[in-house]
Amino acid sequence: MAGPLVFALPGNDLAAGRLARALGGEVGALTVHEFPDGETYVRVDTSPTARDVVIVATLRHPNAVLPSLVFLADALRDLGAARVGLVAPYLAYMRQDTRFRPGEAITSRSFAALVARSVQWLVTVDPHLHRFASLSELYAIPTQGVHAAADLGAWIAANVTSPFVIGPDAESRQWVDGIAAAAHAPSTVLVKTRRGDTDVVESIPNIDDRRSCTPVLVDDIISTGRTMIAAIGHLREQGAAAPVCVAVHAVFAGESYSDLARSGASQIVTTNSIVHASNLIDVIPSIAAAVRRQLATFTESTAPGAVRPPPPT
Amino acid sequence: MAGPLVFALPGNDLAAGRLARALGGEVGALTVHEFPDGETYVRVDTSPTARDVVIVATLRHPNAVLPSLVFLADALRDLGAARVGLVAPYLAYMRQDTRFRPGEAITSRSFAALVARSVQWLVTVDPHLHRFASLSELYAIPTQGVHAAADLGAWIAANVTSPFVIGPDAESRQWVDGIAAAAHAPSTVLVKTRRGDTDVVESIPNIDDRRSCTPVLVDDIISTGRTMIAAIGHLREQGAAAPVCVAVHAVFAGESYSDLARSGASQIVTTNSIVHASNLIDVIPSIAAAVRRQLATFTESTAPGAVRPPPPT
Asked: Which of A36, A66, A105 sits opposite B223 (nearest CB)?
């Protein structure tokens, strides 16, 4: 099987190039620009006809990316691509997954519907699932959420002396356990209550019996950084060592990265799901494995007489 | 029949309020804000259940508006609105209506598909139709393009002494004739060739026999303003009076408004399809008439035994 044709939306060139190499495919040439009136122009400069196509577009700025993503996917199908999939290392609009107050738009559902009408499969890294147990409840296309826990744990094991892994909330227990197992380290979780967009109230576990360890605060996303900043404050009050902050997705809204750096973290480390100065953990190999699985599913399911397997979740 | 419930996306409050009054309806309360991470939050604060709903959202910044438009429309349907229509006084993505170069995304089609999946009818003002003869070739929902020619002509008749109406290109001939008829004025058109995004080459008709008139340059959209700036230069070379510039849609990309003002226009006048300092022509009454027709179509077509009329175009 020839490898796929990989297109990078602006800002995703590095990930697309490495993904294409890992898959034995090639990067397609693409032109995206904005007209003076603010409309977006998209041109596919490598023919996708009869090719298996992968779009790489991390969704750190989902509103800005959405038009070019939809236009590109529509054009690729129109130009005869065999199938178009999306690798969104960071997947957006996972928080508003229900109506917390009457009348709210459930943007998780709306956004998923927009993506699912445009592409035929989706691979992402550690989606922020909350009320939905799996991506398949939101997305009407085959999806795969790559688990970054092993990559995070391996980095911690290799780089932190005597780590003590601390997760953000009770819900993250299983995910934190996975990281701790890969890091060969003990772990615990914070108790957190979110109020509005930015206010977070939490309590830190007593670390008396872990005073000789290096605290490692882990989370799937660092957005405002408030959770980690508050946790760092509590840890320092208890006389703990300056913690290492490790997260999958380097969202870093506003000034949150410098705020977090100033708050007493000894180091801030993220994966390259969103390009950022803090990227030290590489998730491209894990993404490539997941994409390979999607492509193989397609090949099998379209072979004569093949039984289509259930979509991976 | 009770009037419709009208929701204004941010920046459209004035138009929505006047439209609601003209239709005997009311403006619904709506909350739209952006989270620190850039995602959009939408909440409908007036129940749309079983109501005929109108969203007012001009598409001057289509990429920025698209997510909130889709989220709002999805939420309204989800909350039980009888029907959801869109008033977009300025409709975006009308230029790329074909593949000028191989591999180009036909954004007119993609954008129309996004809108048509979200709302059930569309009313706009003078859409920039080029290769498509009517909106119905692009939009799979009932649409109506309000003609602003009479409103422009009436303003010219009331405000310009001895006007001579000059249209932007041969294609605009019929539209310019409509304006000139309403203004009781003679008219002509420029010959224009567009090169790339901003370069325009044109020739101006000889105005010797109209030297006593006030030139009135008209166009559907002023975006970069290059067409009008070049025309003003040619007119001044011929010793014509400083022209009045009249357009439907005040797009005004970048510094184009001040560029045009400095280039020798005696006045720049637009309709309120896009809120701008140059708005002097009111198209809300014309829009209200078109919306009333859409709402009536719905009522008739859903009455028992009614024959559904073909969608207006």
From this structure: A36
Q: Sign of the CA dihedral B53, B64, B269, B313?
A: negative
Mean pLDDT per 10-residue section of chain B, whose length is 313 residues: 91 98 98 96 98 98 97 98 98 95 97 97 95 92 97 98 93 94 94 61 66 93 94 88 97 96 96 98 98 82 47 50
**Burial zone of A199 (CB within 10 Å; 0-12 exposed, 13-18 middle, 19+ buried):** exposed
The closest alpha carbon to A227, from A185, A169, A276, belongs to A169
What does the pLDDT look like over B88-99, one tens digit per residue? 999 999 999 999
pTM here is 0.91
Contacts of A113 in chain B (CB under 8 A): 74
Q: How much is the ipTM here? A: 0.90
Q: Which residues of B touch A75 (CB under 8 A)?
A: 103-106, 110
Q: Chain A within 8 Å of B37 (Cβ-Cβ)?
A: yes
Residue ranges and CATH numbers for the domains of chain B are: 5-147+284-301 (3.40.50.2020), 149-281 (3.40.50.2020)
User: What's the pLDDT tens digit per position in B63-104?
Assistant: 999 999 999 999 999 999 999 999 999 999 999 999 999 999
Q: Is the pLDDT of residue A7 over 70?
A: yes
- Please calculate the CA angle B48-B49-B53 and round it to the nearest 5 degrees: 40
